[in-house]
TrEMBL record:
Organism: Roseovarius nubinhibens (strain ATCC BAA-591 / DSM 15170 / ISM)
Chain ranges of the Smr domain: 101-191
Protein name: Smr domain protein
Cross-referenced InterPro entries: Smr_dom, Smr_dom_sf
Ranges for region Disordered: 20-50
Length: 194
């Protein structure tokens, strides 16, 4: 869908609204060109929490922002921890998983408990490569008002595997090859016991 440019009347209306608006951060208030608005009958004291926040520089409609919010930058994908040759063989589906856990139809709590037990048992048996099948999730209808993430288990599993008690046992987690479930399954490569 092509974006429509506002016409002159709409721009003038927007400028009137912008001139009448009161900035939240009064320290960087732009000078008022039009006549000043009437005094606020209910003045409020400045909020000390708001004063501590860094302010955004003023901008005009249509300008691109040069500032980014803290934490807005995406984190880089972590480097591969395991042997690169084994990693590429695993990604191509050439390594066969030594054990499989299927989480289809489980609730989040039950799946979390099953995953913890499965990984702990696999590590105690000195298994290196296991497969955890989460499924891709149910497809939502296209006319949903609030979009919902597909596959709750699929999105939760990597986080579970990075946190204790499983984090110290897991060396690598990656999406499985199509022959082992594709986007609905994960390879979990475990560390050697010492």
């Amino acid at each position: 869908m092509k974006r429509r440019r506002p016409n002159k009347e709409e721009l003038e209306l927007w400028r009137q609204v912008a001139r009448s608006a009161t900035p939240l951060d009064r320290r960087h208030e732009a000078p008022v060109v039009a006549k000043p608005a009437a005094k606020d009958p209910f003045p409020t004291a400045p909020d000390p929490v708001q004063e501590a926040r860094p302010a955004l520089e003023p901008f005009q409609i249509g300008e691109r922002s040069t500032q980014t919010a803290p934490g807005a930058m995406a984190t880089a994908k972590p480097a591969v921890q395991m042997d690169k040759k084994s990693f590429h063989r695993m990604k191509r589906g050439k390594l066969k998983p030594q054990a499989t856990l299927d989480l289809h139809g489980m609730t989040v709590e039950r799946a979390h408990n099953a995953t913890i037990g499965f990984i702990l048992r696999a590590a105690s048996r000195d298994l290196r490569l296991v497969l955890v099948v989460t499924g891709k999730g149910k497809r939502g209808t296209e006319d949903e008002i609030i979009p919902q993430r597909r596959g709750v288990l699929r999105h939760q599993l990597p986080q579970w595997l990075s946190l204790p008690p499983l984090g110290p046992l897991v060396l690598e987690v990656t999406e499985a090859h199509n022959r082992h479930g594709g986007g609905g399954a994960y390879y979990v490569y475990l560390r050697r016991r010492r």
